[in-house]
Amino acid sequence: MKIGIGIDTGGTCTDVVAYDFEKEQIIAYGKTLTTKEDLSIGIGKALDKLPRECVEQAEVIALSTTLATNACVENKGGRAKLVLFGIEKETIAKVGGNYGLTMDDSLHFINSKTKPTGKVVEAPDWIGFEENLKDHFESCDAVGIVEMYAKKTGAQFEKKAHSMIDEQLGIPSVCGYELFSENNIVKRGASALLNARLIPVIEEFLRSVEKALAERQIKAPFVIVRSDGSLMTEQFTATRPVETLLCGPVASVMGAVKLSREENAIIVDMGGTTTDIAFVKAGVPQRVKTGVRIGKWDTFVKGLFVDTFALGGDSGVVIDDGKLVLENEKVMPLCIAARKYPDLVKYLKKEDESRTLYRNQQKEIYLGLKNIDDRLGYSAQEKEISRNLYHHPTSLEVLGKKMNTIVLNSQIERMIREGILIRCGITPTDAMHIKGDFNQYNREASQYGINIMARSLAIQPDVLCEKIYDEVKRKLYFNLVRIMIEDAFPTIRETGLGEQLECIINDNFRRAQNGVDSIEFFGCQLATPAALIGVGAPTHIFLKDVARMLGTEAHSSEYSKVANALGAVIGKVNAVITIDVSYNQEMDDYIVYGGGERLSFKDLEKAKQVAANLAEEKVQIEAINRGADDNLTISCNGQETIVDTEFGPLYMGYKVVATASGNLKLR
Question: Is the pTM of this model over 0.85?
Fold first, then answer.
């Protein structure tokens, strides 16, 4: 029996499955809380829920995680900078925001000039670049590097800058050409910067997995899911974490497709932080055409189509202008915080008994997740705040008294963004505990928090819980309809729904929620024949009602709550390499370029043959580096483009696309 173990580390829970490759079935599974202060603890506890013999016999460990996804949605990540060669600041200022770039100190511009043919007209000032390396990049966790026309130049500037940063500073730096071959330098730059920001996030995850496996003497190799559903090795992942952008959501899609028999379905995966939506049409998961877009980032990452939005069991519930609102930000539910820190219950009870109202930011409670005493780049005050909150959930009011000052939200925003602190507050998970739909944590803490918020809105606690449920359903319904409209009408995806369509969607929700099926004079009904497939622990609580409102059915199974972990372990390894040939009129020769290479030939047929050989060679290396065994299936297709003009045929180029696929190399 060949056994694999799938592990999914989400923002709230860590799931694990033991899978029999020969029988294609789950042997055992488990679920536990994700331990953000030390991810290895939660991973280890999840592994301990499996039969010991399954763990010992495992030939491979396959991982998925929503850490990168959540970091993008919440705009978190490590400290990173992007080096841009040959592009004007004005260009980034004008269009950079479309891709996620902002004109701040994360961007470092280097003057250079390169022709579209790849000929360098003006080289960078390398002496000045080297002299300023320490000042510009020493405080960074990682650096991304892109240059204009990198594909045509063989990425010579990117390679040299990478070498200098590595030799002088020893911090991770990744070249744009290693990630993507497309020409748009702004989009490549955004992708490279995001990759750099995610390096410390994924590094922590990988080290945590190593630690958990080592403590249990598990020697099986481990791999991680890419955004297209294929797998890659730990070493590959460490420098290309942007490839894991939709790792967790895609794993859930693959797992849900395996579990479901529906030909046409909408996969709905609600976790602690986000909800992910994917389409299955005629039994095939749909793919993105231009690159993954998530949060503010528009990237060249290839993958399955997954729309991710902020909605989960741990979405913060707040009062804004007298109305109940679900925040995009994840907070730690009071019930979870209180289970680990029982003194929080005493504080909440005292606040409830004193008839406190939820109207003062100084009453908000924060918890320190990491100790930063020995870290560079933080002020003395930030370290003192972190020290006082580390393993001690405390309100800003109490913290201020302890520090003999007033601590403002603005003073802790950066530490929240970097995952040092987290707010503890009311969430849908707390409402689930009050309503009895979930009872794993401390219900008493949830009750006190709900009491305080309900009093602030002048309603009963049970009414508040219903309102929280209704808001979760409304947000889920709204986004499902939005995504289906954007799928049916691609132009709307580019321009946005607009206020009128949003009004129609919300009006349909209210009518459907109240059970109004008939239309008196004029109106529309929003529906889909596709079944809603629920994935994730809290999804089933809300999905049945939303499915009814959309005129369809909701399905889930015993294994739906661990579909992410299942999707991780059933993946394969794929790789794609593109090599181009173009005519260089200036030198009257043919240039072969791509994959960091630039070669010139006088003979076209020779250039085409070299391009094909180069593509096959590089795609084989790429697939093996990602973790495939030697038994690869490789295909190579070339396409030549010649257009007719009034002056005769015009040679536009030759493109070779090589693909390799294979099974994971087992122990």
Answer: no
